[in-house]
Amino acid sequence: MKKVLRSLVIGMSTAILLPVWIQAQELTNTAGRMMEAEKKLSIGGYGQIDYNQLLDNGSYNNGVLDVHRLVLMFGYKFNSKTQFITEIEVEHVKEVFVEQAFLQYEILSWLKLRGGLMLIPMGIINEYHEPSTFNGVERPNLDKYIVPTTWREIGAGFTGTFPSAALSYQLYLVNGFNGYNEEPTLSGSNGFRKGRQKGAESIINSPNLTFKVNYFGVSGLQLGLSGYTGKTQSTLFGALDKSDIPSVLTADSSVVGLSMLGLDARYQLGGMQLRGQANLGMVSNSATYNEFTGSDLGSSIGGWYLEVSYDLLHQVESFESGLIPFIRYEQYSTHVSTEDPILQNPEFQRSDLTIGLGWKLAAGAMFKVDFQRFSNQGTGDTKKQFNAGVAVWF
């Protein structure tokens, strides 16, 4: 945990101490772009087609070709204050999901009511996940195992922007992870990832709170502070008699608490872009949960990454294209700490190095290639992988 916190301070300090110039505008994603549109109906989308090849000199490995995701987004403006945004996603050709579906009403210029299926505002990629907006064929593994992207739940709350202070905020009450659905869904190998309810007949026993504050007052710089706190949900509370104390205690054993903080920074100067993110989540009641379910959930999870990229064609004004080499290093663990009798599993102490190149053909259209080295810090085992992909966003 000390390494995570120390690296976080170094990474965030690097971004903050870069030169300061004029006021900047906050970056936006597809949903934000649609909400700013003047027309009543807006249509957008993004897609990602991947090739992943595990490299092992001692054995043959099949490569994997996958239409990873194709997404259509629709926005409708009922009037100047009322809007609806939805995102329909097809993953791996055969799985259909609703990734966002929320109604927004502007009460004041800085106070907007939002309700429906919404992205949890944690980190960078969970909200800005359009494939042509991030480097590498695959999203960072920190955003897969710790955040975990794409994390969305049903709820309601408020969002807004204070342009004069260069601040924006989000504050929502949402349903939590489903930590027990006839069997445990949380584990050391996947953290909370399999507990995402995704708006599909979600259950709720107690609401969870999430927030994010963004600062964008320095040219090229974005700083974010995210938070999340609450308890997981459990099917054992369904039709449970409150006077049945033994059953209530059993149901309590199937629930854990999660409190997570995140810091993220993005800085762009000319063709150079720096990115950094760190997340730390504290898990309560993990010992009781593990004893009841037989799982191996950690008592804290977390990690960080730093990334630098440079657009070699950024000074060629006549081109809409770009050629962007990058390097990203990340460390993350679903067993930052554990409670007895669960011991820290060295296989869950991971570090990844990704080196790649993106060729931007036009705004929102890219070819990508990269090489990844995955390491288990505890065991010393490593894996290597080559990736190539097509990324579009419109």
Through-space gap between termini: 40 Å
How many DSSP-defined strands?
18
- Output the helix-strand order: HHEEEEEHEEEEEEHEEHEEEEE
- CATH second-level architecture: Beta Barrel
Radius of gyration: 21 Å
The strand order across the widest sheet is 1-2-3-4-5-6-7-9-10-12-13-14-15-16-17-18
CATH topology: Porin
CATH superfamily: Porin
User: How many distinct folded domains?
Assistant: 1
The mean pLDDT is 92
Shape: globular
Instruction: Classify the oligomer.
Output: single chain
Strand content: over 45%
Number of contiguous helices: 5
Which secondary-structure class do the elements indicate? mainly beta
Low-confidence stretches: 7-25
Instruction: Note the main sheet.
Output: 16 strands, antiparallel, barrel
CATH class: Mainly Beta
Percentage of residues assigned to helices = 10-25%
Topology:
Layout: H1 2-16, H2 30-36, E1 41-55, E2 64-77, E3 82-91, E4 95-108, E5 111-119, H3 142-145, E6 152-162, E7 167-174, E8 178-180, E9 208-218, E10 221-231, E11 233-234, H4 245-253, E12 257-269, E13 272-284, H5 286-293, E14 300-310, E15 322-337, E16 349-362, E17 365-376, E18 382-393
Parallel strand pairs: 8-11
Antiparallel strand pairs: 1-2, 1-18, 2-3, 3-4, 4-5, 5-6, 6-7, 7-9, 9-10, 10-12, 12-13, 13-14, 14-15, 15-16, 16-17, 17-18
